[in-house]
């Protein structure tokens, strides 16, 4: 990977950490409506995500580059195989402000996004969607550096 792109990716991941440290309460109040069980679920997910980012950022550039293919992060494109019919589809996990259903850009807070965030290649995940529950296998992960940080 080009060193300048990797440097931009590292900066992007650091900005995610800063965002979750400094803006989380505003973000949470805006996007999480249920303050009961959902609050705890989202809090736990964010804490695991922050820990994962810290571990990744502690690695040298070559190890970080390899790690970007081993875990689903905000900005990762995830190719999944639907077990039932053998259909493959890719989703990009993004902030709620960056969703684009026509291009399979899904919020990490959506039911599918929650299941895919932090998933690894070869993991089996049950995706819950309006059409029901479907088991998929994560086939491939690639981090798509999206330039600047745009979570609002």
Automatic annotation (TrEMBL):
InterPro entries: GreA/GreB_C_sf, Tscrpt_elong_fac_GreA/B_C, Tscrpt_elong_fac_GreA/B_fam. It holds the Pfam family GreA_GreB. Signal peptide: none annotated. SUPFAM superfamilies: FKBP-like. The keyword Heme does not apply. Gene3D superfamilies: Transcription elongation factor, GreA/GreB, C-terminal domain. It comes from the Bacteria. GO terms for molecular function: DNA binding; RNA polymerase binding; translation elongation factor activity. Residues 74-142 form the Transcription elongation factor GreA/GreB C-terminal domain. The keyword Lipid biosynthesis does not apply. One of its GO terms (biological process) is DNA-templated transcription elongation. Keywords: Elongation factor, Protein biosynthesis. This is GreA/GreB family elongation factor.
